[in-house]
Amino acid sequence: MYNYLLFIHILSAVTAIAAVICYPIIMSSARTVGQTKFALSLLEKTAILPKLGGTLLLLTGLAIGFQETYLFREQWYVASIVVFFIILVIFARLLPVGNKQQLKLLQQTQGDDLPEAYRLSRRRSALLEAVAILAVFVSILLMVFKP
């Protein structure tokens, strides 16, 4: 059973991490109002990936922990769960709110130039994305090296 859980855990991590890394890549390529609206709608459609991958990641990680109960006494394991929740808050709550706000700003825009209010909101989202990517990196380090 452990190997099956580990396989699903790793597959879930790949799914969630790929989505996390793609967010800033997709958004940095948008240069006009039309492109940005498309990028935001694309992110809205792909938002299921970090949610699904993250949920499976948490469930399989905890299931592995319940099979190997000593893990709950390991600092790297507990730290991985804490880091996971940081990523979860960013991608399940903070970024979707920011994306909706940005889309609302773009709906009110005439022309194809991105308004300054959008750029400011986007900078906040980019900072959150950077924090999430750093958290993913720390999470991977914790799981691979188990310090």
TrEMBL record:
Keywords, in A-Z order: Membrane, Transmembrane, Transmembrane helix
Top-level taxon of origin: Bacteria
Leader peptide range in chain numbering: none
InterPro entries according to UniProt: DUF2269_transmembrane
Any single Pfam family the record assigns to this protein: DUF2269
Transmembrane residue ranges: 6-26, 47-64, 76-95, 126-145
Protein name (Swiss-Prot/TrEMBL): DUF2269 family protein
